[in-house]
Write a structure and sequence with these properties.
By secondary structure, the protein is an alpha+beta fold. Helices cover about 25% and strands about 35% of the residues. The protein has two domains: about 1-35; about 35-175, no CATH class. The protein has three helices and eight strands, in the order H-E-H-E-E-E-H-E-E-E-E.
Length: about 180
């Protein structure tokens, strides 16, 4: 009986290991071929591609809400990825905006969409990022940089005597 029990444990362990290895191999093959799905209540500075403003803390609109999210579906050369971090600071919105104008510059021209920004009709290249219809809420600031395919966005709003801001990365690619 003892030998049989040991054999069954060994067989179970081997079976689980083989199944797990197969799942990992399929996941790796899908990733190498560019397919995936992400739904998460967490995001990092790496995901949004921007640093956290010094001294800022996570902001939740309500106790039940997360201050971050990652969503994505991609495969076959098309897809969508979104990463968001919502933060707050005791500093004034203008000071936070100045910090992020500098941080966004590494992705190219920084658009300030607060007062409409660049007109989409001014550009013949459809890859050029524009403000389009994007604008912040009253009293806020909306900054964008990157390309239409890979956008880095910072949405800054006054919050009491300080500021709330969302760091957003959007990747969208069609075939």
């Amino acid at each position: 009986m003892r030998v049989r029990l040991c054999f069954l444990r060994w067989l179970f362990t081997v079976t689980v290991t083989v199944v797990f290895a197969g799942v990992l191999a399929r996941a790796r093959a899908q990733e190498e071929n560019g397919a995936g799905l992400v739904v998460s209540g967490q995001a990092s500075t790496k995901d949004v591609g921007l640093p956290i403003y010094p001294g800022s803390t996570p902001h939740r609109d309500t106790a039940e809400n997360s201050n971050a999210a990652r969503l994505g579906v991609w495969g076959g050369g098309a897809g969508f990825k979104l990463a968001v971090l919502k933060m707050e600071s005791k500093d004034a919105p203008a000071k936070v905006a100045n910090f992020y104008e500098k941080a966004l510059a590494k992705y190219g021209k920084v658009l300030n969409c607060t007062s409409g920004g660049a007109n989409p009709d001014e550009f013949s290249d459809t890859r050029v990022l524009t403000c389009g219809d994007d604008k912040p809420d009253q009293g806020g600031t909306l900054l964008k940089s990157g390309t239409k395919e890979k956008q880095h966005i910072v949405d800054i709003e006054p919050y009491g005597t300080g500021t709330t801001f969302a760091l957003v990365y959007v990747w969208a690619k069609g075939e």
